[in-house]
């Protein structure tokens, strides 16, 4: 009798296997308990256990012994002598030792030494190569026989580098009394097979669900099939594929692995029997997909395809979403709908972790927590993010962004009440972190505070004390990873300490905290394997080490909804199965190049081609395609880039078109429903804001610059002067154009105050010296200075030339002088203030008013129309003697100096030919403007004249201009 069986994809695998075993056991519970069932994963073992309980309606049952194939040494008793097999190195120890070897090898070759995190990535790929070599039972010594001269020069260098595997790595394993994980599995399987050969087991042994892609597992399947009571159950073997296609199978085909396994067992495909007499309820659908995926060598058979009934694809739909967000939203809605039918189960199957996280987040809007078999990356959990952020904050010398990201984390408390701590952090942010970056470290923060706020100074002092040991190690040129990790964890625990709860309890508590604690313990234990690194490299190294750690939820997930990886879904079915992320490069994944060996080298060495993984992925897709109800989803664009549909979808489309088939259900409704979730029922176009504050709240004094804003955009005056709203500079901002203008203004002011009467012998050199000092005070970054400094130097050339030309006609120069003028108004006196950039007293008794502009000055037409009244209003103040130290006088010229840099460095423009008339009109216009706003019915409208609106305003978002403006108005143009 044959010992190899199969279950078709359309039958639920674990339920069918459980039903078969229950039927064989009959009413004797001891018979079932005597079975031993080997399954691919622990999750599959749990699924089979649940299937037994469902089929027996929960009555007490003695289950068979369920063993995952990858953990055979866990059996009790141990008939195979697994305890005598040397242990494998812990995974993190192995990666860190390989990282140290990569760093040492590169340093020994005299090349540029990679950063530790880069070396760790290379070491991870090297570990994967070791796993492949071990799984295929190859000898690393064979690498030397690859005839390096036949390969490109850089591959010859790589082969020399791989001497790690042949010379150094075996010695390290021997010193530690350990072996490779793959070699350990090989030995355990060999020991198990030898034990069975010596004493064949008397109980039934069933290996189910494995494709035998691992050679050791394939040997085990062959040994089980040869046992007197051994059975092998293959998932989804195609027993109807034509012989020509079977012969032409390539590694990318879903049946390729079965062909190798059957050959290893020594049984013909025709001898494989179905495990159950139950026919596949979706056999026609499975045949359609098998036809679509037939080997390329036999695709000419498509010319003979005939029309198929629509029922062939009944229950299968397809959704092509515009992007990942829409795809995830539609999937979440489908999963949510499944819960409306009692007992219905649904699952998303995808290798796309980003899609899985998006779907889980979308389900959160209904307070549904879904079970994700792959778990969440530790670095994205609360404690994992806190560990990353705390390390990055200290390594970046408490730079503003990193500081706030860490201290605003929910776990940060610094020994205080968490709410009070966050309030202090917000105060610190407002006090010193908006605008240009303070000097490095806690000393820089303290200097920026200038000891004005004892509470904030105390916060910085505490932070300095808590982080002190960690800071010392990070600043060291070399430190052991173990010391760095311990200092970092001590700092994280101290920073997480609250006034009512110790830091360790807050940091390591709960499901995610326990996972983070396990990771931290593994890191501390494995860290000595790497040795020393430069302290500044620790944060990037930590993130790379943490990249592979995940947190799996054990509780509070919905029992009827799941997210499965393709491997987990292979043996399980749900009433609704959504196969998501079906884009080329995602599912199937791209056949990525091996950084250590080229394709010819892999083939010559005996390693399987990368397409073997595509074949395994195709088999998982085939299994999922046979579920009762299937939805195939993909995103047309990802991050704005068009995507290519999965090759399986492309082939399926071609075959369906040839057979006259199409997906009947319109899935666009799911996209529409998702779009409507966050869309209001109706759009109401708002009106521009027009607040009318009471008269006693309206300002009674404004500057000349504000008068211009008052005319162009009254709402900005309302927000600034009545609501007292002040714009905050960006955090850690480079100096902006406004800061550049301030630097130029102050440099010219210092020059004029230093040389008020007589110019120095070399005015250009003096201006440059003053500018260099002012740039240094502003702590302008090198990148910004490289752009601004040449412009400033060009300005000095032009200004010096103008000074030489103007000085003979001047009696005095007054830079940055303040003035004021009071006028009568309906609601009482109104005060106009101004700070003139420069007022030159001419020898004839008149004045020149000069306004510096590092940007574009207003046109003569704008000044004449009253929309740029700054200089005429300053002339009105000067006429009435309002500037301190300057006698009342008429203004001869109103000038703009456009200090633009370049060639020439500046230009002089007149504000108008008749300053006296402009002054009269500006003063009359001001009186009229004040009178208008002294009427409580006059609103402070937002941009009442769009054509004359200011080019920029800090209050556009507050006025919600984008909601009611049209055309270029929303950009302030």
Automatic annotation (TrEMBL):
Coiled coil: none
Superkingdom of this protein's organism: Bacteria
The keyword Nucleotide-binding is annotated on this UniProt entry: yes
Keywords from the UniProt entry: ATP-binding, Helicase, Hydrolase, Nucleotide-binding
MF (Gene Ontology): helicase activity
Annotated PD-(D/E)XK endonuclease-like domain residues: 701-934
InterPro entries named among the record's database cross-references: Ds_break_AddB, P-loop_NTPase, PDDEXK-like_dom_sf, PDDEXK_AddAB-type
NCBIfam families given in the database record: addB_alphas (TIGR02786)
Name of the protein described by the UniProt record: ATP-dependent helicase/nuclease subunit B
């Amino acid at each position: 009798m044959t010992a190899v069986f199969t279950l078709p994809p359309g039958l639920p695998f674990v339920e069918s296997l459980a039903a078969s075993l229950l039927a064989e056991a009959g009413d004797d519970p001891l018979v079932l308990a005597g079975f031993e069932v080997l399954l691919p994963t622990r999750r599959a073992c749990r699924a089979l256990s649940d299937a037994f309980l469902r089929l027996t309606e929960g009555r007490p049952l003695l289950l068979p012994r369920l063993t995952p194939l990858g953990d055979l040494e866990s059996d009790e008793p141990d008939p195979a002598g697994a305890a005598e097999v040397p242990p494998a190195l812990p995974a993190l120890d192995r990666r860190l030792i390989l990282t140290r070897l990569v760093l040492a090898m590169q340093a020994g070759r005299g090349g540029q030494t990679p950063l530790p995190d880069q070396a760790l990535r290379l070491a991870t790929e090297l570990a994967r190569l070791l796993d492949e070599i071990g799984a295929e039972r190859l000898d690393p010594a064979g690498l030397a026989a690859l005839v390096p001269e036949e390969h490109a020069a850089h591959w010859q260098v790589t082969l020399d580098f791989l001497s790690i595997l042949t010379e150094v790595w075996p010695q390290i394993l021997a010193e530690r009394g350990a072996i490779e994980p793959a070699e350990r599995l090989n030995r355990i399987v060999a020991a198990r097979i030898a034990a069975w050969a010596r004493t064949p087991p008397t109980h039934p042994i069933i290996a189910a669900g494995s494709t035998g892609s691992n050679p050791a597992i394939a040997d085990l399947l062959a040994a089980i099939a040869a046992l007197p009571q051994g059975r092998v159950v293959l998932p989804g073997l195609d027993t109807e594929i034509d012989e020509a296609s079977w012969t032409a199978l390539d590694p990318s085909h879903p049946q390729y692995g079965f062909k190798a396994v059957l050959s290893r067992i020594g049984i013909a495909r025709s001898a494989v029997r179905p495990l159950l007499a139950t026919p596949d309820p979706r056999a026609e659908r499975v045949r359609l997909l098998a036809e679509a995926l037939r080997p390329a060598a036999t695709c000419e058979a498509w010319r003979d395809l005939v029309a198929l009934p629509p029922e062939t694809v009944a229950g299968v739909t397809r959704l092509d979403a515009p992007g990942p967000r829409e795809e995830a939203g539609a999937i979440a809605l489908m999963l949510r709908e499944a819960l409306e039918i009692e007992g219905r189960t649904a699952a998303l199957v995808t290798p796309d972790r980003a899609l899985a996280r998006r779907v889980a987040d979308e389900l959160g809007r209904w307070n549904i927590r879904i079970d994700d078999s792959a778990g969440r990356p530790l670095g994205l959990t609360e404690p994992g993010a806190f560990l990353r952020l705390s390390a990055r904050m200290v390594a970046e010398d408490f730079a503003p962004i990193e500081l706030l990201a860490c201290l605003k984390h929910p776990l940060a408390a610094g020994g205080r009440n968490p709410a009070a701590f966050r309030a202090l952090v917000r105060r610190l942010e407002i006090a010193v972190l908006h605008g240009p970056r303070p000097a490095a470290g806690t000393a820089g923060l303290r200097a920026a505070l200038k000891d004005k706020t004892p509470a904030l100074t105390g916060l910085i002092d505490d932070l300095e004390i808590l982080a002190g040991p960690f800071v010392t190690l990070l600043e060291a040129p070399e430190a052991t990873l173990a010391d760095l990790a311990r200092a970092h964890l001590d700092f994280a625990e101290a920073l997480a300490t609250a006034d009512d709860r110790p830091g360790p309890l807050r940091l390591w508590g709960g499901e995610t905290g326990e996972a983070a604690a396990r990771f931290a313990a593994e890191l501390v234990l494995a860290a000595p394997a790497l040795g020393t690194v430069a302290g500044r490299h620790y944060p990037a190294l930590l993130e790379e080490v943490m990249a592979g750690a995940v947190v799996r939820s054990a509780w509070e997930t919905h029992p009827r909804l799941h997210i499965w990886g393709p491997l987990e879904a292979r043996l399980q079915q749900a009433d609704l199965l959504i196969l998501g992320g079906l884009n080329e490069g995602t599912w199937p994944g791209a056949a990525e190049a091996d950084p250590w060996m080229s394709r010819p080298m892999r083939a010559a060495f005996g390693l399987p081609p990368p397409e073997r993984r595509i074949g395994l992925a195709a088999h998982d897709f085939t299994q999922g395609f046979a579920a009762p109800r299937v939805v195939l989803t993909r995103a047309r664009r990802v991050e704005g880039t068009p995507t290519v549909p999965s090759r399986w979808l492309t082939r399926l489309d071609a075959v369906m078109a040839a057979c006259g088939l199409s997906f009947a259900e319109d899935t666009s409704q799911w996209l529409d429903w998702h779009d409507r979730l966050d869309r209001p029922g109706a759009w109401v176009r708002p009106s521009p804001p027009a607040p009318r504050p009471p008269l006693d709240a309206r300002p009674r004094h404004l500057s000349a610059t504000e008068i211009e804003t008052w005319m162009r955009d009254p709402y900005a005056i309302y927000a600034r002067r009545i609501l007292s709203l002040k714009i905050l500079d960006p955090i850690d901002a480079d100096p902006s154009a406004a800061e550049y203008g301030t630097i130029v203004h102050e440099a010219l002011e210092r020059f004029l105050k230093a040389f008020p009467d007589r110019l120095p012998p070399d005015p250009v050199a003096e201006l440059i010296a003053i500018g260099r000092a002012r740039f240094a005070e502003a702590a302008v970054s090198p990148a910004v200075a490289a752009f601004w400094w040449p412009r400033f130097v060009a300005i000095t050339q032009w200004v010096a030339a103008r000074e030489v030309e103007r000085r003979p006609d001047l009696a005095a120069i007054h830079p940055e002088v303040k003035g004021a003028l009071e006028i009568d108004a309906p609601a009482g006196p109104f005060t106009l203030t101004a700070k003139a950039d420069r007022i030159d007293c001419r020898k004839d008794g008149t004045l020149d008013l000069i306004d510096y502009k590092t940007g574009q000055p207003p046109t003569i037409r704008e000044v004449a129309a009253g929309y740029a009244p700054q200089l005429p209003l300053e002339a009105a103040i000067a006429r009435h003697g309002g500037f301190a130290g300057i006698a009342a006088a008429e203004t001869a010229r109103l000038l703009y100096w456009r200090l633009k840099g370049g060639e020439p460095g500046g230009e002089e423009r007149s504000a108008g030919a008749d300053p006296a008339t402009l002054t009269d009109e500006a003063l009359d216009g001001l009186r009229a403007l004040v009178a208008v706003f002294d009427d409580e019915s006059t609103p402070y409208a937002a941009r009442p004249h769009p054509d004359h609106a200011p080019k920029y305003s800090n209050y556009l978002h507050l006025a919600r201009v984008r909601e009611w403006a049209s055309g270029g108005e929303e950009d302030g143009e």
